Amino acid sequence: MTGAFDPYSSLYSNPSGPGDQRPTALQVVKDNDRINKLTDKVVLVTGATSGIGVETTRALHATGAHVYITARNMEKAKAVVQDILNTSEGKGNIDIIKINMDSLESVKQAAKMFLQKSTKLNILVNNAGIMGCPESRSKDGHELQLAVNHLAHFAFTTMLLPTLIASSSPDFNSRAIFVASSSHRFARVDFDNINMTGIYQPQLAYGKSKTANIWTANQIERLYSSQGVHALSLNPGGIWTELQRYSSEADIDGWKNDKELAPLMQSPAQGAATTLWAAVGKVWEGLGGSYVADCKVSAPAERMDDAVNNGYAPWAYDEESEEKLWNLSIELTGVTPP
């Protein structure tokens, strides 16, 4: 480890593909001395039944915290929970809350259900997402990637903010973690055509939704850090998961044979490492408002025409746009922040 905000630089310096020397989520938990050390904490993870969501949940459970997960498919969620309970060092419970992220009514009901079950929330991980789907609309009429990746998480987080605030303590401030993507560099949010009507491109829509994740995290940090709630956004890196289900076989084969990209790909457990660093890393106590990747604070991107490097776009930190998106999201979701 070379520095508090870049603890694994030597491990990330020469990647060779999934399962290489780069840290896993559980390794990050162990390195931060969190194994069964957060037994009085409550955490909540969206999108916990596939990909890095499973490994995020597995590692968070190892902290001893009471873990809640959201899921559309309850049977799949039960199988994931049982697998984690059978293999985890953690002593806490895992509870499931049903949610359909493409319906704001379902999202609001899920938030209400959580609040009925728990009076505490210390860590919220907004992990659920879709990528590159054909043009379609949510049940509320919004472009689907914007709806699932941003608006659902905005509504969910906003409804839980009072509990995050109330649960914060001087020795452990509450955290809201947004899983974004290097693809935010493809596009900023277009306020003149938020649903990309007539100009839809799957990857651009995904990029806009990921920019929205970053902006929302930045705005939460700005508005609520003084009340003990801190927010971070992150790029988990490249992982072969169900997120690529809308990608063509030709595209996937091309990526797998790309000599620059292939070594950067990670296992799901490695892909969840940055999420855990943001969620339980001791270095982040009382801090937020950063975009992180490879378990370090990201720098400005050297190139904007690819999703390989981990830097951030010039628009990633834009206070005026962050506030504008915040206000628009209130209007579109009907959820008013505390």
UniProtKB/TrEMBL annotation:
<dbReference type="InterPro" id="IPR002347">
    <property type="entry name" value="SDR_fam"/>
</dbReference>
<keyword id="KW-0560">Oxidoreductase</keyword>
<comment type="similarity">
    <text>Belongs to the short-chain dehydrogenases/reductases (SDR) family.</text>
</comment>
<dbReference type="InterPro" id="IPR036291">
    <property type="entry name" value="NAD(P)-bd_dom_sf"/>
</dbReference>
<protein>
    <submittedName>
        <fullName>Putative short-chain dehydrogenase</fullName>
    </submittedName>
</protein>
<feature type="region of interest" description="Disordered">
    <location>
        <begin position="1"/>
        <end position="22"/>
    </location>
</feature>
<dbReference type="GO" id="GO:0016491">
    <property type="term" value="F:oxidoreductase activity"/>
</dbReference>
<dbReference type="Pfam" id="PF00106">
    <property type="entry name" value="adh_short"/>
</dbReference>
